[in-house]
Specification:
The structure is a single chain. The chain contains five helices and three strands; from the N terminus they run αβααββαα. The protein is α+β, with helices and mostly antiparallel strands and 85 residues long. A three-stranded antiparallel β-sheet has the order 1-3-2. Helix 1 packs across helix 3 and helix 2 packs across helix 3. It is globular, with a radius of gyration of 15 Å.
């Protein structure tokens, strides 16, 4: 029996596959409420797994979600050792 994927994991996978979407677009495409998506994105940002960029096309500002690169997720000690390998 397959295990149920958490909301946070589902949203993180979506952001990795579709970077640069705002909360509204993510909630619409995943058919989830905006609050559920906003809370999950906030938790992912606190964990350092995603970053936000702000875009202003007109008077409205869009908060776009992007995944953090794999190198940035590594511990600092390990990142320092990479050039020596």
């Amino acid at each position: 029996m397959p295990s149920k994927i958490s909301t946070e994991e589902k949203i993180y996978r979506f952001v990795c596959e579709n970077p640069g979407n705002c909360t509204y677009d993510i909630s619409r495409m995943l058919r989830m409420s905006g609050g559920k998506v906003r809370n999950a994105l906030g938790r992912l940002e606190k964990k350092g797994m995603i970053k936000f960029r702000f875009e202003r096309q007109n008077p409205r500002i869009r908060k776009l979600s992007y995944p953090v690169g794999a190198i940035e997720l590594m511990p600092k000690d390990l990142r320092r050792e990479i050039p020596n390998i």
